[in-house]
Amino acid sequence: MTEAGQILIVDDDVDLVEMLDTLFQDLGYEVSTTCYGEEALVLCEERMPELVILDIYLPDIDGYEVYHRLRDNPLTRHIAVIFLTVKTSKDEKLMGLKLGALDYITKPFDNEELQLRVQNIMREIQHKRSTDGVTGLPSGRLIEDQFRLLLRRENWALMYMGISGFGPFKEAYGLGSAKTVLRITANALLEAVGELGTEDDFVGHAGEDDFVIITVENYKYSLAFPGRN
């Protein structure tokens, strides 16, 4: 997978597909293409693109059917979709958006406008993948980036913590209660850093019940043992 992300283009207009393929590859995206809805479903499972640019009218099954089957499959339901069509009906557009598509582009379109829309969507997707969906705290790549910055600094401290008994609690009380505990923990850490840390401190969600705080050396004890001298 490229750093910019993967895009799947599904359209039976060969010239249009070639143009979009070149456009998005030049922007650094990894691009796959197909004319058929059934093949698009297979490619989505195999390559897991971040975004599908999907024409409504295809030779085998229509784009709406492709969309429904993507959403019904646990492996592909997270994939973002932009509908692409010659249809100009307001009802058609509203239908696509109500289904959950991120955007609806009508042909003919302005290349620069499509490029900007796709780039904005891909940035948002990358951002969401870098933040935890439950706590909203930075995770994944954002934590890795902070670690890289940390190595360039002096007088820093890393605090790594977990929730004792979280696994058995989740089994006993269910996922909903477990998510509530994670949110409460995240808010408590943010509040502690806000009151006892510095404005440059970093709070991240490193794993299921694991959290990190990056602070300066002088503040680590006040954060670890609030209320103690």
Tell me what you see in this structure:
By secondary structure, this protein is α/β, with parallel strands linked by helices. It has 2 domains: 6-129, Response regulator (Rossmann fold), CATH 3.40.50.2300; 141-224, Reverse transcriptase/Diguanylate cyclase domain (Alpha-Beta Plaits, 2-Layer Sandwich), CATH 3.30.70.270. Helices cover 47% and strands 19% of the residues. The chain is built from 9 helices and 8 strands. It has helices at 14-26, 37-47, 63-72, 90-99, 111-129, 141-150, 166-173, 175-196, 220-224, and strands at 6-10, 30-34, 51-55, 80-85, 103-106, 156-162, 202-205, 210-216. The protein has a 5-stranded parallel beta sheet with strand order 2-1-3-4-5, sandwiched between helices. It has a 3-stranded antiparallel beta sheet with strand order 6-8-7, sandwiched between helices. Helix 2 runs parallel beside helix 3. It is elongated.
